[in-house]
From TrEMBL:
Pfam families: zf-CDGSH (PF09360). Keywords: 2Fe-2S, Iron, Iron-sulfur, Metal-binding. The keyword Iron-sulfur applies. It comes from Nocardioides pinisoli. The keyword Plastid does not apply. This is CDGSH iron-sulfur domain-containing protein. It comes from the Bacteria. Residues 32-64 form the Iron-binding zinc finger CDGSH type domain.
């Protein structure tokens, strides 16, 4: 498989979990604050229950579906 070009982030939606972003440089939250991304892959909370929004902190695992 050819190496991929990460000019644009890759997005992976985890079932009942976060959205994984690979290759992103920043994330803007719901209040318009811009968070710099300093890791190759980050997990964004989709359940809105994380104590570290916009990042996933694993809380989605204990929320009843
Ligand atoms: S998706 Fe993981 S804490 Fe919200």
């Amino acid at each position: 498989m050819k190496d991929r070009d990460f000019d644009h982030p890759d997005v992976v939606l985890v079932p009942h979990g976060p959205m994984l972003l690979r290759g992103a440089e920043s994330v803007q939250d719901l209040e318009g604050r811009v968070h710099t991304v300093d890791r190759p892959v980050v997990a964004l909370c989709r359940c809105e229950k994380s104590s570290r929004l916009p990042w996933c902190d694993g809380t989605h695992k204990v929320i009843p579906r």
